[in-house]
Specification:
- The protein has about 325 residues and is α/β, with parallel strands linked by helices.
- It has a single domain, classed as Nitrilase/N-carbamoyl-D-aminoacid amidohydrolase (4-Layer Sandwich).
- Helix content is about 30%, strand content about 25%.
- The protein is built from seven helices and 14 strands.
- The strands form two sheets. Strands 1, 2, 3, 4, 5, 6, 7, 8, 9, 12, 13 and 14 form a twelve-stranded mixed sheet that branches. A two-stranded antiparallel sheet has the order 10-11.
């Protein structure tokens, strides 16, 4: 008989670059989820700082055993549950987007996202692990954001995991008065892809999915066009989905920050959808594929430029200050 858990997925309205404040916000939301009866709680991708093409992202990485990992472990130990989320971490001269899953006795395992998405390339490099994490309740598969729309992710997890955990930081087109009609149509397409991705991925892998998300607005630069502001928002869509794609819980962008919960039966079964013979799972619009290509290349060049200018020692330099700020703000009320 398969184990059943109460799962929670968190939707955050986090602020770009505010690592200390976002950790306080994450702690409050995780505590809320556990107090409402959750056994497993997932935070979104980049829960320490959502991403944009912004100078602040050069200074958000934490050590692998730093404040973010310690927060996950502390909460998992206190509530005797499981907590996970991803954040940018730096070690050995490079930064990665690392998903960490913690249990009552410490870190259960981790997964480095296989490939940065668009402007994310300016802030970290991809990893090479299989994303499988062994837990007392069986093997867990980790996948974050656009890993959920690539066929190779399905191939590495299908038939091997009894639940998929992760989250997204999925933004949309800039809200430009000059391009209103075009950006609105693109936004509708992008939001539909985001909405349908968790259920489709669960059906393709044959395992339930706990998907956390970001919501809220942000402003940054436009890659390659520094004089043009990029004003946009994250798409939300925290979802908990059964292995057959049944939507068990969902939080819309318009509902803002909060926690969703659902009872989830763990277990790996046969896929109920056919995996396409291509790189992408959905048929991405031409504009999305064009931006993927252009911004990937731009971001890689920017990452190499920053690395050549002194590596990633700056990631460690502010650690004591960030840690002190996190500790001083723990327990503060936050709207």
């Amino acid at each position: 008989m398969n184990e059943t858990i109460t799962a929670a997925a968190i939707q955050m309205d986090a602020q770009v670059g505010d690592v200390a404040g976002n950790l306080v916000r994450a702690e409050r939301l995780v505590r809320e989820a556990f107090r409402r009866g959750a056994d497993w709680v997932m935070l979104p991708e980049f829960f320490t700082s959502p991403v944009g093409y912004h100078y602040a992202l050069r200074h958000v990485a934490l050590p692998p055993d730093g404040a973010a990992t310690r927060l996950l472990c502390d909460l998992a130990r206190e509530y005797r549950g499981v907590v996970g989320g991803s954040f940018i971490t730096a070690e050995n001269g490079d930064a990665t987007n690392r998903f960490v899953l913690a249990g009552p006795d410490g870190v259960l395992g981790q997964h480095d996202k296989d490939q940065p998405t668009m402007w994310e390339n300016a802030y970290y490099v991809g990893g090479h692990d299989d994303g499988l994490i062994e837990t007392p309740l069986g093997t867990v598969g980790s996948a974050v954001c656009w890993e959920l729309v690539r066929t190779r992710t399905v191939r590495r997890l299908r038939g091997r995991a009894n639940v998929i955990v992760g989250g997204s930081c999925w933004w949309t087109m800039p809200q430009s008065p000059l391009l209103h009609a075009l950006s609105k149509r693109m936004d509708v397409q992008n939001r539909e892809i985001m909405r349908t991705t968790p259920a489709r991925f669960a059906r393709l892998v044959g395992a339930p999915l706990i998907h956390a998300a970001h919501c809220g607005s942000f402003e940054c630069e436009t890659p390659g066009v520094p004089f043009l502001p990029y004003r946009s928002h994250y798409l939300g869509e925290a979802q908990i989905v059964a292995a057959d794609g049944t939507l068990l819980a969902r939080r819309l962008l318009e509902e803002g920050e909060g926690v969703i919960l659902a009872r989830v039966t763990l277990g790996s079964g046969p896929a109920s959808d056919v995996l396409p013979e291509r790189f992408w799972i959905p048929d991405l619009p031409l504009w999305a594929r064009a931006l993927w290509t252009q911004q990937n290349a731009h971001g890689v060049r920017e990452y190499e430029r920053v690395k050549a200018a002194g590596g990633f020692s700056w990631q460690q330099a502010g650690w004591d200050r960030v840690h002190a700020a996190c500790e001083s703000r723990r327990g503060e009320p936050r709207g």
